[in-house]
Amino acid sequence: MSMKKSFVALLIFVLAGSLLAACGKKSNSEASSGGGGSNKTVIKIATQSPLSGGSAVQGEAIKLGAQLSLDDHKDEFAKLGFDIQLAPYDDQADPKKGVANAELVAADKQILAVVGHMNSGVAIPSSVVYEKYNIPMVSPSNTATQVTDRKLKVVNRIVARDDFQGPAAAQYAVQTAGAKNIFVIQDKTAYGQGLAEAFKTEAEKQGAKIAGYESITIGEKDFNGILNQALTKKPDFIFFGGLYAEAGLLVKQAKEKGLDVPFMGADGIDTQGIVDVAGDKVTGVLYTSISTDITKTADGKAWADKYKQKFGKNVDGYSAYAYDCMSVILEALKKAINDNGGKLPSREQVRDAVRATKDFQGVATKVTFDDKGDNDYAKVFIYKFEKAAYPGSMISDISK
């Protein structure tokens, strides 16, 4: 090879090496910033809720409420040098799927917290994974006592517990609705069974008779068997611990059988979904809820209008509570960043900042976490469907 050709070859080799080095630097930069060439550090907040299946209406509301809060705070974090992003996961209301997702969340080091879960039965096993990896979760809807009674450092919720909601429902049923012979049905989940047990215990304390205590399975469509049992007991009131898909069918099939007595559910039926399933048969149905109707205040109505404008949907039962969960997390995240000298905090630092939340005012509720992660300001609300339209009319609210 001539000297001239050797020089040209050497020059090409050097230039190619320089180009590869430049590409490598760019790739490393993009990896640290999440891609797109941004020089901001990416922080992700996950959501875990059912985005498919029978509980998807409520699960989607959780995701959208969280998304709205994150979007509202994006510019604030950009000024601090961070790009906050949502990482939504579909837990399908299935404990196994929730745990598998939790492992994926843990493996993504950019995820520092979780909004969720919707179902207590999914949250309980999934939170064991979060505890192992110090990932704080704040739930907009978990009510089972076991969720926080385990005293895990990562677990928090902003809503009332079953041992508050269940007795409140029973007190209303007996003292206000005059129920004396109550038939109780539950769906065998941690949520439904815990709620039904709390209701049953308090109703008996109030002097009512429990005419029957039976269970169904999520996904069932034909409830003739259990409703025939109820007919033989001649109840004057039915309480159901479970979710809207089954509740809507129970209401329809009960009325078709002539079992036209007051029917009461809880926050699991606080959704447009039960109206979609039960149609006009939903009229007269009572439900307790852990969520308020935020449209009753001017500020709440403005927030609901903003939500509808952004997503093209009306707010659902957990929409505003998911917004508040995300807002609590982001407020704690800001504190953790500040306490860490403006640098990316660890999951442990965010976990501790979340649990330290005091007197945070959200759009739906005020939040102060106790040492177990329960909210001191949680309330229970009682609603009635005066017509086949969601939400029902709020007829009472009860504080601790």
Automatic annotation (TrEMBL):
SUPFAM superfamilies: Periplasmic binding protein-like I (SSF53822). Residues 1-21 form the signal peptide. Keywords: Amino-acid transport, Signal, Transport. GO terms for biological process: amino acid transport. Residues 43-375 form the Leucine-binding protein domain. InterPro entries: Leu-bd, Leu_Ile_Val-bd, Peripla_BP_I. Belongs to the leucine-binding protein family. This is Branched-chain amino acid ABC transporter substrate-binding protein.
